[in-house]
Amino acid sequence: QVQLVESGGGLVQAGDSLRLSCAASGRTLGNYAVGWFRQAPGKEREFVATISRDGGSTYYADSVKGRFTISRDNAKNTVYLQMNSLNPGDTGIYYCAADRTVRYTYLPRIGATYELWGQGTQVTVSS
């Protein structure tokens, strides 16, 4: 069983950057598509980005397209989310999630699809 641990969150100012990491322990993360989701206070969890198991394909929510970049290093069993030009609307708890798949182009965007979740890391962007 793969366990996911997020890190890299923090308090930053608008316009700053952060890089989140999602480290997997247990089986190889290379067998999983991985996504990032976030949840702001009082709001539902929303999709942010997803990456295919080999890193060859990615997909982003419109709200982060052009500012966030998802990537992975399967040798390190880690997926990253580089977040640039942060604004207060990006504030929330960020979760990574993994879904086991044999398809190399699989890019799940619905939270219920994912079978594994991390505990989350807080990102706070002040204006």
Please describe what this structure looks like.
By secondary structure, the chain is mainly beta. Helix content is 0%, strand content 50%. It has strands at 3-7, 10-13, 18-25, 32-39, 46-51, 58-60, 68-73, 78-83, 92-100, 116-117, 121-126. Strands 2, 4, 5, 6, 9, 10 and 11 form a 7-stranded mixed sheet that branches. The protein has a 4-stranded antiparallel sheet with strand order 1-3-8-7, with no helix packed on it. Strand 4 (32-39) and strand 5 form a beta hairpin. The protein is globular and about 40 Å long. The chain starts with a strand and ends with a strand. The mean pLDDT is 96.
| Spans of at least 5 consecutive residues with low confidence | none
Largest sheet: 7 strands, mixed
User: Which value, in Å, is the CA radius of gyration?
Assistant: 13 Å
Return the structural class. mainly beta
The overall average pLDDT, rounded, is 96
Number of helices: 0
Topology pattern, helix = H, strand = E: EEEEEEEEEEE
The strand count comes to 11
Distance between the termini: 40 Å
What does the overall shape look like?
globular
Helix content: under 10%
Percent of residues in β-strands: over 45%
Short characterization:
The chain has 127 residues and is mostly beta strands.
